[in-house]
Amino acid sequence: MVFVPFATQNYRLDSLPVSAQECQNAYAEREPPDAKTQIAVFGTPGLTSFSTVGAGPIRGMLEHDGVAYAVSGSSLYSVSSAGAATYLGGGIAGGSEPVSMASNGTQLCIVDGTYGWIYNSSTGVYTMISDADFYSAHTVTFFDNYFVFDRSGTPYVFLSALLNGLSYNALDTAAAEVQPQNVLATVNQQESLLVFSSGHTETWYDSGAVNFPFQRIDGGTIERGLVAHHATVKEDNSVFFLGDDLVFYRLDGVVPRRVSTHALEKLWGEFDTVEDATCFSMTLGGHKMIFLTFPAALYTFVYDIASGLWHRRVSYDAQGNSLGRWRGNCHLRIYGKDLIGDAFNGTVGYVDPTVYTEYGLTTPMILVSPPTQNDRKRVFYSNFELDMETGVGIASGQGSDPQAMLQWSNNGSHTWSATQPWRSIGAIGAYRTRVRWAGPLGQARQRTWRLEVSDPVKRVVIAARCDISLGM
Fold first, then answer.
1. CB within 8 Å of 90: residues ≥ 6 apart
2. Spatial CA neighbour of 80 closest among 352, 334, 346
3. Measured distance CA(409)–CA(444) in Å, rounded
4. For 281-347, what is the HEC assignment?
5. Distance (Å, rounded) from C-alpha 304 to C-alpha 30?
6. Distance of alpha carbon 368 from alpha carbon 366, whole angstroms
7. Do residues 373 and 381 touch, judged by C-beta distance below 8 A?
8. Backbone angles phi, psi at 228, to 5 degrees
9. C-alpha distance from residue 200 to each of 167, 175, 246, 258 (Å)
10. 57-70, pLDDT tens digit by residue?
């Protein structure tokens, strides 16, 4: 019996015979040397409803003064630790587009690409920013007592007054100087202000100058720009962003380090729209993960910083149809929970490791292996065994006798076997169940295996093995 490498990442090339790996709704974890396997694959946790916040979608969330705030549709809500949503005001433009939010401790600032809004948690007043010197902006960050904005469609950034997001001065603006390119986003990172333009990124600092407090750091320019306003995220003491060359980067000081793969970069290059890309981060079981979504293309990819591997997240509707992307639109860690704002409605859920559905909807785990072959010799296969955690069934209903489905392809993953043999992965407590497909399983010069588990149970793949014999 030989080891069959299984999917630990999403690396699906445009040439499928080279690699058609898929890792959907699952992620790989490297294990210590004395573990049963060096790398195991775990199904992603489910979602449980926490609150219903307006009609949705949830366009952004932020903690402000110890309370969760969410923009749902065109309105701002506060959400209590018990999940009670309170309407605070409306008028926020942009439909379903993401918003950017920042807090100065008293004022919560929101920008939607056209207007700006302030909610003062001390007075309970929510108001549009009406100062004549406020400009349209897509992003806002808080830095040294200022709200800092990109000025939409220009190479400029501008500031609020000190600790006052309702007051602006026409002189409190400055241009990204290295190249005449539009500024797309501003990010406060480790006492530096990163000014992302369409073709480069500048690093500024607070000099305390009277005319304009921020100045560019000589030698701190990054010769790489940003492709979308909301395609940046801070995580693991760094900033990650989708570059203007459609490569995903991690900033190492002022050096962008590529973390995406050629397979993903080729796919992203085929999308009709990439300017809508969004990012957020979340920690799952110690895995710091970056979620990158292309809303128009309906794809969500996740980069696991710990392993350096990518996987794909996909949500499904009530009829079992794929939504293409993951329904998670934004994330907020508060109240001891990881809250997830929904891209399709007003639900704010939380990541729940005890469930394996999203609000009761199935989330199939699909794994496609790398191609297996032996110097192009004909290989005869039999007795395929999947080493999984078994006995994971639930008490009743779907999942009481959970099943795994195996298919294979002998033509480079272009088509799959018509038969879909299912095997039980064990009713509740049946820990010694063997997930095994006995007997001859055909022959091929190259084979790819595909595993699917749709039942709402714990899914852990440890290894796969198969008896083989070689022909000519």
1. 74, 75, 76
2. 334
3. 9
4. EEEECCEEEEEEEECCCCEEEEEECCCCEEEECCCECCCCCECCCCCEEEEEEECCEEEEEECCCCE
5. 11
6. 7
7. no
8. -150, 145
9. 30, 13, 14, 16
10. 999 999 999 999 99
As to burial, measured by CB atoms within 10 angstroms (0-12 exposed, 13-18 middle, 19+ buried), residue 290 is: buried
Q: What is the mean pLDDT of the chain?
A: 95
Band of residue 330 on the pLDDT scale cut at 50, 70, 90? very high
CA distances from 304 to 287, 292, 326, 336 (A): 6, 11, 16, 22
Confidence of residue 1 (pLDDT cuts 50, 70, 90): low
The single residue listed with the structure tokens 């433009």 is 93
Longest dimension (CA), the chain: 81
Measured CA to CA in angstroms, residue 167 lies from 161, 212, 308 at distances of 5, 15, 44
* pTM as predicted: 0.96
CB atoms < 10 A from the CB of 354, how many?
8
Which of these, 21, 46, 62, lies nearest to 330 by C-alpha position?
Answer: 62
Q: How far apart are CA 158 and CA 212, in angstroms?
A: 9
Q: Is residue 340 within 8 Å of residue 348, measured between CB atoms?
A: yes
Using an 8 Å Cβ cutoff, are 116 and 76 in contact? no
DSSP H/E element including 263:
helix 262-269
Token code pair at residue 248: 């995903």
For residue 205, the number of C-alpha atoms closer than 13 Å in the C-beta half-sphere is 8
Q: Cβ(420)–Cβ(447) under 8 Å?
A: no
Half-sphere exposure of 83 (CA within 13 A, CB side): 15
